[in-house]
Amino acid sequence: MNELQIGNKIAKVPIIQGGMGVGVSRSKLAGAVAGEGGIGIISTAQIGYDEAEFETDPAAANRKAIVKHIRLAKEKAKNGLVGVNIMVALKDYADHVKAAVAAGADVIISGAGIPAKLPEYVEGSDTKIAPIVSSAKAAKVLLQRWEKKYHRTADFIVIEGPKAGGHLGFSREELDDIDAIDYDTRIREIIQTVRGFAVRFQQKIPVIVAGGIFTAQDVRHAVSLGADGVQVASRFVVTEECDAAKEYKEAYIKGTSDEIEIIKSPVGMPGRALHNHFLDEIREKRITVKKCYGCMRQCNINEIPYCITEALTKAVRGDVDNGLIFCGAEIGRIHEMTTVHDLMEELKQGFD
């Protein structure tokens, strides 16, 4: 099994645990994955939801929590790599990046928008950066922009496919018929595009495949397409170390494939979620938003169908009937709890 080398940083196991918010992947999960040799990823989306000052100053609570959870994860990581996932759509995107860099994040993965200014925010640091892309065109446009403005390129790339959970970089029409998407060809095209920039900058740019990676066989297939590693998210939810409430994990275990829905998020992107009472409620009426937590850059509380902060925090705390439960397309194949160690050992077989 090859190690995953990202510049001067090395992960012994080329598995990245995907960032999941709100609060699903924080220090407990990320630290455990890093301790097993992978890269543990903390989601910064409203990461400070349980901090004392969150109700009065959510921005300060999030900055505080970013620093705290990176520190706690690194204490658990046994010198493994710990990073963060930061959505471009966040109102305080730049502040989250700068806080993560100051806290010593090894990597930053950024999607849910175009991370055009990400190199600017990490300049002078040793933090490695990766955009999330879903097409060769998106990869080319962004990397050309970074090359022209910052004279640098990505340290690695994450390709997210249509089977991923949470917010998705595909149209509703594509997601309604994901079998029609030739994902293998897209992966090859993106890898070929990235190689061109790697040659120009005379550096290795690892490519990570994400979205629907469930078994060692899926890992093996991604590697056969040219991937340097994989990113896995949903399967880590049902580990003992996952930061979400036990009711959240149980919802994953009980959930079936026919209960998965594609929804329109207040973020303005389609998302994949598990059916529950909350999805029935927002289908019938708009849920009045009484308070703004300042999470998204473009958000009008008088127009959005519901508050995504409130919906996600309810779920992660355990109110799985009245909260939003994001999930991947393969959730129906999850049937039991496991541990980070056992899951990592299973997935590692795909690199043999």
Describe this structure in words.
It is a single chain. This protein has helices spanning 27-35, 58-76, 93-102, 118-122, 136-150, 172-176, 183-201, 216-224, 234-237, 246-254, 277-284, 308-317, 340-348, and strands at 4-6, 9-11, 15-17, 39-43, 81-85, 107-110, 128-133, 157-160, 166-167, 207-210, 229-232, 260-264, 270-274. The protein is built from 13 helices and 13 strands. 37% of the residues lie in helices and 15% in strands. The protein has an eight-stranded parallel sheet with strand order 3-11-10-8-7-6-5-4. Helix 1 runs parallel beside helix 2. The relative contact order is 0.15. The mean pLDDT is 95. Strand 10, helix 8 (216-224) and strand 11 (229-232) form a beta-alpha-beta unit.
List the helices and strands and how they pair.
Blueprint: E1 4-6, E2 9-11, E3 15-17, H1 27-35, E4 39-43, H2 58-76, E5 81-85, H3 93-102, E6 107-110, H4 118-122, E7 128-133, H5 136-150, E8 157-160, E9 166-167, H6 172-176, H7 183-201, E10 207-210, H8 216-224, E11 229-232, H9 234-237, H10 246-254, E12 260-264, E13 270-274, H11 277-284, H12 308-317, H13 340-348
Parallel strand pairs: 3-11, 4-5, 5-6, 6-7, 7-8, 8-10, 10-11
Antiparallel strand pairs: 1-2, 9-13, 12-13
Gist of the model:
This protein is of the alpha/beta class. It is 37% helix and 15% strand.
* Distance N to C terminus: 6 Å
The general outline is: globular
- Helix content class: 25-40%
Please provide the ordered H/E string of secondary-structure elements: EEEHEHEHEHEHEEHHEHEHHEEHHH
* Total of DSSP H or I helical runs spanning 4+ residues: 13
SS elements, strand count: 13
Arithmetic mean pLDDT: 95
Largest sheet, strands/sense/barrel: 8 strands, parallel
Strand order of the largest sheet: 3-11-10-8-7-6-5-4
Q: Briefly note the structural class of the backbone.
A: alpha/beta
Low-confidence region ranges: none
Note the beta-strand portion: 15-25%
Provide the gyration radius in Å: 19 Å
